[in-house]
Design brief:
7 strands, 329 residues
Length: 329
């Protein structure tokens, strides 16, 4: 990731802080248990003594003695576990979870940057606090079909609002489940307030949770960043836009709300085309219908979207309005 030294140091300090907090937590827990039962302190001291003996044995190349010492350590560990259980504590009380179990909060797996460090880099570069704040509110399990009517149909079809929502939910969930094996893109389009952004948040949250890099922008933010890179003064550093093309998933929310012109149309085409060529997935949400997308942007963009995107139409009554009505009752 293109980070300055200052940015990299800032991220690594956060990893060091996590490690220190975990170490302090373990120390506090050990002191807590030691106060409850002196026997745990005795077992910890015995473990330390035997571990030193094991290290010396390994240095001397005495494999048989090392096996015996390992058996003794295993027996002591079993005693500790049983002692914790008798006090009502879980067996892993001295082994609290890491923020990232893959790299154990170091940022690296061997010499390779962990997925959590890659995402932390993206978050810092693009200041995605807006995405972080909304992910806690989203989740596929919180998607409710009762906001979509069974008796409201898309013009000229027998597809109800609820049936369309069921299909969108299922296809978005399938998109996440098959993300690593099946290259797809999604366009969520339709009425205002019918769950398009919520579903894109669900997708982002699931993929972040499985170690994928996700960049989330409103359309206005996206084009502002591209404009800052293109129309800058020579003495200003150019914002790096390569990650917009390279990240595992790019989400563009509310396409059509930006100030549309020939620049935005050409930049959107370049971005979509680059990502399609490199098989990098994109999710777009828009209040525009397909005809509007074709007329506002270009036939080239319309062709890319209709050829390479799964088109999911959502319609119905504004969910936020429905929630407000229910809250007033």
């Amino acid at each position: 990731m293109p980070l300055t030294n200052t940015q990299y140091d800032e991220i690594m300090r956060s990893y060091q802080s996590r490690q220190l907090k975990r170490q302090r937590l373990i120390l506090n827990r050990r002191e807590e248990i030691d106060r409850l039962t002196p026997r745990m302190a005795e077992l910890n001291a015995e473990t330390a003594h035997i571990s030193v003996a094991k290290a010396r044995t390994l240095l001397n190349g005495k494999d048989t003695s090392a096996e015996e010492i390992s058996d003794r350590l295993a027996a002591i560990t079993a005693q500790k576990t049983e002692l914790l259980r008798s006090l009502g504590y879980p067996k892993d009380y001295f082994d609290p979870p890491y923020h990232c179990t893959d790299c154990k909060d170091t940022g690296y797996i061997g010499n390779r940057r962990c997925h959590c460090l890659k995402q932390a880099s993206l978050d810092l570069i693009y200041a995605q606090s807006n995405l972080t704040s909304v992910l806690g509110e989203a989740g596929f399990s919180r998607f409710r079909l009762d906001y979509y009517a069974d008796d409201l149909f898309a013009p000229g079809t027998d597809i109800s609002a609820r049936k369309a929502a069921q299909n969108a939910y299922a296809r978005c969930l399938q998109f996440v489940q098959n993300f690593d094996n099946d290259f797809q893109n999604i366009l969520l389009f339709g009425d205002t307030g019918v769950g398009k952004t919520f579903l894109s948040h669900c997708i982002a949250g699931e993929l972040l949770g499985t170690g994928h890099s996700v960049i989330y922008f409103s359309a206005q933010q996206f084009f502002d960043r591209l404009a800052a890179s293109t129309f800058r003064n020579d003495d200003e550093p150019a914002p790096d836009c390569r990650n917009l093309f390279d990240c595992d998933l790019l989400i563009l929310d509310d396409l059509g709300t930006e100030m549309t012109n020939s620049f935005t149309a050409s930049q959107l085409f370049v971005c979509l085309n680059e990502r399609i060529l490199h098989r990098k997935s994109t999710v777009i949400s828009s209040n525009l219908n397909l005809q509007d997308i074709a007329s506002i942007y270009s036939e080239r963009i319309f062709s890319r979207i209709t050829s390479h995107f799964l088109l999911l139409h959502l319609f119905g009554k504004d969910i936020r309005v429905q929630k407000n009505i229910l809250a007033c009752k």
